[in-house]
Amino acid sequence: MNRAYLDKLFTVVLAGVLAGLVLAVAALPAALVFGLGLKNLMPYTALPEALKTPQPAQRSNLYANDGRTLITSFYVEDRVDVPVAEVAPVMRDAIVAAEDVRFYEHHGVDVRGVARAFTANRREGTRQGASTLTMQYVRNALAGDPRLTEEQRAAATEITVGRKIREMRYALTLERQIGKDEILGRYLNIAYFGAGAYGIAAASKRYFSTTPDRLTLAQAALLAGLVRSPADDPINGDADSARQRRAYVLDRMVETGRASAADAEAAKAAELALAPNTTPNDCAAVPADHNDWGFFCDWFTQWWNAQPAFGETVDERQRTLRRGGWSIVSSLDPDVQAKTSEQVREIYPETIARAAPTAVVQPGTGRVLAMAVNRTYGVAANPDGQQNYPNTVNQLVAGGGGITGYQAGSTFKLFALLAALESGLPLDTVFDAPRVYVTQYPVGAGPASCGGRWCPANANTYWMDGDRDMWDAFGRSVNTYFAWLTERVGADRVVEMAQRLGIVFRAPADAKMAHDGAKSWGPFTLGVSATTPLDLAGAYAAVAAEGTWCRPTPVTSIADPSGRKIPAGNTDCRQVLDTEVARAAADASRCPVGDQSMYRRCDGGTAEELAPGLRRPVAGKTGSSERNATETVVAFTPQLSVATIAANPDDPRDAVGGGVQKRQIAAVGRILAWALRDEPVRDFVPPGQAVAFQHTSPRTGN
Prior knowledge:
The protein is built from 28 helices and 19 strands. It is α+β, with helices and mostly antiparallel strands. It has a 5-stranded antiparallel sheet with strand order 5-4-19-18-17, with helices on both faces. Residues 359-653 form the Penicillin-binding protein transpeptidase domain. Residues 71-253 form the Glycosyl transferase family domain. Pfam families: Transgly (PF00912), Transpeptidase (PF00905).
């Protein structure tokens, strides 16, 4: 009978009996042990999922769209798994010497160690453990499994006889199913090394700014020593204790033949040579020189929290993010983001309370390339009465969390234009627009009320009144034309069109009106509802993409720790407009920004200086709310859509004035020019003759 067989047999006989004794100061009565039942003494058992398919908590990393530039990480435990083959042999030797010198000899339970601990605990009145490296891994894996409840994880480390026996049985079974090196690798990836570093990869980075494959003997011995006593970490704790633990590990390596005496002495004498390196955690930890990334990061967390694929509740989704080890390639383009941030500060510097939140969206995918605002992302104190200036973590660009948005003025005329085209009216629909137009829509008292009826007026009688078609009216932003057009197609159709293109009613009053009073909401056409630059850029991007609306997304791909990409990272696009309707709207949208429609029907626009500077086909719209309280500019090409709104987020009564719009137009033009500088010039597809000049039945095809 060989020695290995004897060891296994001895293990079967003694494992269950001695397990409880190791935990106790005195011997456990035999009757109690045998009272646990024969089933509990069986050495092999089915493994739980935590051991069959381990999922230790790992940090998730959020990258820019190049897949390499780290924006930040999210974690409760700073850990990222590495294959054991990528761990320096000296580190593997050090951990075995420190924690389980007979690791490669036993079968999961070290009979000699159990007997030694039992004897020591009886004679010396001390508590000496007998956990093998495999048993330690079992305990850590169960305690850290994100699939278990907090109660289940706590049960994995409770000091009971049953837990110890279960741990031994799992260890024995595990060693029958996977090899020693795999167990060692799992252990190194799950162990806590102090200073917030979980796993050998995080520890190598945290203490020495290196990777596990480059660890030296002195570094490996130090890290191995910290596993038993992580509170002695030399960064935050006791460097002398860490040196003593290092020396202990080096002595054990010499005793077991894993290091020469000379090498060990040299390692003992070496300085600790720490090179601490922290892993950023959450959006507040974006790189200091890229503080503007914080607003995109914040919106990413909003997006993640809304995805049912990651859990049933927000709390579950956050646990999934912070424990799941995801590799998330975002849509953020650092180059476009930098230019957008620069141009936003050309509109308004950080030193004033007014803001210019701006979003850049890719038509056809919904990917958000940039989100910028002239604010510092952070929670530092602000002057009294200024919640969002100069510091804020509120989502000024995308809305949510109490930010309902800003009125976008005449940019909402797009939705009336689309509803009219969809109803069968052509671009050539002519109306003699008066200075003031009295509509059928009831309104309260105010400057746009005529006997209780909504009666908008044109801002420039000479330039706007008279016969106008859709090209001309959209280019010159003729209020009375679009009030008349809204009556023809129905205000509820205009509201529905906005919702179809992704406009979200975050203000309760707007949501109630859209739900209960859309038929009488004529003023909606002139942009009285609050919106955000992100929603607006996404809506105009649908026109740029010939009717395909894509839900704005902050991600390009999401991969699990194995590298498998999951569907939650895919784009969410759908055809929401007839292609001809979208093409016709794009054609009319060329008029406001100084471009020319395919049918040469543009005759004046509110932002005519934009197109000549860009020198490529472009479309868009400007908007001013009542009293110029806010100013808005949207511009798009087939490849990109940009929207910016000037407002005071803390004081809607602070009218920004019309003068800022010139700076907005210039900024949007420069953002487009920069972002598209290496892209081919693409033209819009012209609309057909029917949608341009003929009344038809409703155009709801595609």
